[in-house]
Amino acid sequence: MNIDILMIEDDTELAGLLTNFLLKYNISVQNYEDPYLGISALDIGKFDLLILDLSLPGMDGLDICKEVREKSNIPIIISSARSDVDDKIVGLMLGADDYLPKPYEPKELYARIISVLRRYQIKDDKQEKDDVLKLDKDAMMITFEENPLELTKAEYEILSYLIEKKNCAISRIELLNNSLSLDDEKESRSLDVIVSRLRQKLGESSKSPKYIHSIRGMGYRLQM
How far apart are CA 75 and CA 97, in angstroms? Predict the structure, then answer.
């Protein structure tokens, strides 16, 4: 099996070492030192996984992670010498699948790549069966366990956005900005009411949520 990797790493010596090592395992790496060129390559080419450094010229890796995750479901492994635990937490919350602190052995990176891709393969194989919440944007309908949900316009807007960004932490402001019915920060309390109603319709409570989880000080995450 051939695996195509996109790497955004400005350490050319490390990039070359990893590229040569992974090639032994039929993993081809296309590296970009410039983060903007790396993002453009993702739009043009087809890659199985992204290896992302955080300390890059001109653009912080966490901002890249956020931008990539907003438009792609590509698996992301952050490879960084930054040791701040907050960077790791934020990176994972923004949608990265793994965080590998430098320095590390190339064999460990290979193992992480295989592990992440295996998880994605299992998820892809079971996605149709396991996704209890499904969004049909053309029909403006959301089904839960194959049954259509009766939703207000605001409820549909909030839940559909959470589905599109599933498994990612979404801030309250982002949710409000992506709802035509709740386009003002003053509607923040209304957002809590809507989330509460959505939880009821999904048969869960705020004390023991299965799907919609509160992220303290930030917002919500739909776990699927």
Answer: 6
Q: Is 142 helix (H, G, I), strand (E, B) or coil?
A: strand
Class (C level, CATH) for 131-222: mainly alpha
pLDDT higher than threshold 50 for residue 176: yes
Radius of gyration of the chain (CA): 19
Burial of residue 43 (CB within 10 Å: 0-12, 13-18, 19+) is: exposed
Burial class of residue 142 (count of CB atoms within 10 Å of its CB; 0-12, 13-18, 19+): buried
Measured torsion, CA atoms of residues 168, 84, 111, 72, in degrees rounded to the nearest 10? 30
Helices (H) and strands (E) in the chain, counts: 8, 11
What fold, for 3-127?
Rossmann fold (3.40.50)
131-222 shares the fold of 3-127: no
Q: Is the confidence at residue 108, as pLDDT, over 60?
A: yes
pLDDT in tens, 32-46: 999 999 999 988 888
**Which one-letter amino acid corresponds to residue 115?**
S
For the chain, the domains span 3-127, 131-222
219-222/212-215 β-pairing? antiparallel
Answer whether 0.70 is exceeded by the pTM: no
